[in-house]
Amino acid sequence: MAALSSRLIDKAGGVPLAVARRGEEIENVHYGHIAVVHADGPLVVSAGDPNVAAYMRSTAKPVQSIPIIQAGVMERYSLPEAAIAIMAASHRGEQAQIDLLESMLRLTGVQEEDLIFHAGFPLDQEARKAYLRAGGSPRKLFHNCAGKHIGLLAACMLRGWPIQGYAEPEHPIQQEIKRLVAELTDVPMNDLIGGYDGCGLPVYAIPLWQLAGLYARLASPRANAIYAEEDCMAIERITKAMNDYPELVEGSGRLASLLLTDVNCVAKSGAQGVFAVGLRYEQLGIVMKLSDGMESAWPVILSEVLRQLAEYGRIASREADALCSRIEKAFPSELMNDANRVIGRREAVFQLTSSSI
Hints:
Elements: H1 2-13, E1 15-22, E2 25-38, E3 43-47, E4 53-55, H2 61-64, H3 66-70, H4 73-76, H5 82-87, H6 95-108, H7 125-133, H8 146-159, H9 172-185, E5 193-196, E6 202-207, H10 208-219, H11 229-244, H12 246-249, H13 255-260, E7 265-270, E8 274-279, E9 284-290, H14 298-311, H15 317-330, E10 334-336, E11 342-348
Antiparallel strand pairs: 1-2, 1-11, 2-3, 2-9, 4-6, 5-6, 7-8, 8-9, 10-11
Helix pairs in contact: 6-8, 14-15
């Protein structure tokens, strides 16, 4: 028991990254890890343990979309470029997202019942209320990974691979994804720690600094000429669609969608506290993993990361301030109660340090 406790503190627990105050008293502490990596490989700065293994969760979606693009799904089925954004998305069930998913089903011939996960309702509260008021029943399209699964099934159809078992680790499409994860993160396939994601697909845990390196290179895939040309082309097409259609990638009130409106950013959230950002101009990847699995502290932590990177000279101060201002306007640090009174605030409490891996 003592050994487990020590491991949780030293590894999974991490260091304090942010606190929530009610009045002046600290009510909650958000522990975790941060890694910032340059596209050419070296760790720039970190907080906590940059070597801690973190499941990629939905931050893997841009990589999982590559086999779909390379199979020729877009051209064969005449899909709009917006479909790429929804394939890389964790959508919230907003009407524009569902309209696009229904169009993808019609164009590809994929059957909604072939998606392996359960039916549900929109994650977005306003969309859910509207759907329920209209008497709607559960649908698989409301699962936030529906776009990815439609794309994978369409790719299997084109490749002549079986539809049945498409989510199993030994299926050809999953083997292709695993190969890409290993190559693009520079983690040997045999070292990938596997599990299953919420949607049923295989998911891999990798050292946090290597996930940050992946996002640096998703933003700048040609930075150090280590990726194959066909992979660079697919990555550029996927990330461009994410920037062109940020509202499809997650949705209203989501940090990743806000960041994607800036052409400098490639951003994606993942379940259980994982958030990843790539900065094109600076060729940097930023990844945070909160041990409590919560999302509420992401904005204040990311703003502080950007400010400290500016102090290190890694980001121009003007650019960092502009992005921080947008984040803080959309996600105020003040905490409000149900009576619309300011009762506290969130604040970052970490210091990034230069360290070796």
